[in-house]
Amino acid sequence: MLGNVTRNLTSRFERDQYNHVITKIFHARQVGSVSEYVETFDELVHQLLAYDPTFSPTVTTSRFVDGLKTPIKSVVLVHRPKDLDTASSLTIL
Fold first, then answer.
1. What b-and-e string marks burial along 24-54, b requiring 16 or more CB atoms within 10 Å of the CB?
2. pLDDT over 90, % of the chain
3. Residue range 22-46: mean pLDDT, rounded
4. What is the pTM of this model?
5. pLDDT at 8
């Protein structure tokens, strides 16, 4: 009985944490330097992948680029980055 309760609480906690990380990724915006944004977004992606290793790389790349300040976003979009590493590298350049 206690095992089921613990399992249910753990499952609910993990689901809530996963949803929280998803929300943070979808609301992430560059407000400071590029390196701060890259670091913050990278941490969020690692948290997300801990809960769902199959989460779409295309979605994370798109969300990353979308959160950039407009002048930087425009330059990165021209290069059509295929993955998050490429988008991050272009952003830092």
1. ebeebebeeeeeebbebbeebbebbeeeeee
2. 78
3. 96
4. 0.83
5. 58
Per residue, the 3-state secondary structure of the chain, as one string, reads CHHHHHHHHHHHHHHHHHHHHHHHHHHCCCCCCHHHHHHHHHHHHHHHHHHCCCCCHHHHHHHHHHCCCHHHHHHHHHCCCCCHHHHHHHHHC
Check residue 15 and give its pLDDT: 79
Written as one letter, the residue type at 3 is: G
Range of the domain at 50: 2-92
How many distinct structural domains can be found in the chain?
1
User: What residues contact residue 80 under an 8 Å CB cut-off, 6+ apart?
Assistant: none
Residue carrying the six token digits 């948290």: 47
Q: Token pair 């990278």 is at which residue?
A: 42
Helix 84-92 vs helix 57-66: crossing angle, to nearest 10:
20
